[in-house]
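To whoever is covering the structure queue this week,

Two jobs came back overnight. Logging them here so there's a record in the thread.

Job A:
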Amino acid sequence: MVAVIIILIGVAIIYYKNTIGSDNAKMVRALTQGKTKTQADVITYFKREGCGAKTITDSQYYDIVASARSHYNSIQKALDKIGLDADEVREIPPVYFEGFRGENAYTKQTASGRWVSTTYEIAWLFFSDSQVHVYRRRFNLDDDYTTEITDEYFYKDITAFTTISEEEVDRDGKRIPTTTFRMRGAGIEFECSLSEVKDFETAIRGMKQKLREKKNA
């Protein structure tokens, strides 16, 4: 009987050290101190590893992203921030881009092979008679950080609309693949993620066609 108790105690100690008492579990607890429940769930999803690790699912993380995104991706909100009416930007339909950013964020590969991160961004591009107007909102899911920009660029100053497939370095030093849209030109450095856009090529072809028309007018 004593031997059985000793074995059970030993098993319990090993289980503790490999689960809630592991270095990884302690690190995650430290990272989630002072966070909201959702932020703590996000951090745990990205950082918790090993035996006994309990995290939200990939699907649940996408639900968190969708909920946060819904606060920012309204076309009317973007127009209000830029200070335009819809009638002023009818050269081509508004273009919407969105996706994850890996730079300085926590990242992981989902069961389906897709990369996700704790940083997300959305962007609207509007086309008036003489300018391209942009709105971009970037926000973190693991803290309260968010930033937005609005800007406008004359067609005559824009040299190219391009897509770039490259790698970003995340918060842990991992290099992860990413695809971004970039607008180039005199004093122009606008870019945004395309990782969650299925048919961005069609939108970009329309933008390039409009730019050619304006350049040749």
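Job B:
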Amino acid sequence: MEMILGIPIRSVSMHRPSKETLEADYDFGHIVNSYSRTFFRDFKYLSDSRRHWRENIFDVMASGQYDRLHILTHPFWYNDEELTMKESISQFVNKANYERYLSVRDNIRDIDEIMLESEVVG
């Protein structure tokens, strides 16, 4: 991946790792595995899964109870303006719809004779 991207990879994080993956405690050498045991044993883990913090993150940080925090955020849920969960998901799906249309338009001549851009939700 480093060769393809042309940048060093310093850490990896798997989305929704399986129980087996967590138990395997993979060692990637010089690359930090954010789901290694260390980050769950020695750090306080906080996540905004489905746009919901299970604990008040500000209270946890202010408490001074933890020396190390492992904070997982999902940029998918955050926008320039506050959106509901439904709006965030709709925006994501509709944008993909529109991008797919543009891809088809790039590959099919006279697409406007078959389907107009205005017919695409997005």
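Note for Job B: The chain has a mean pLDDT of 93.

Please reply-all if you pick these up so we don't duplicate work.
Q.
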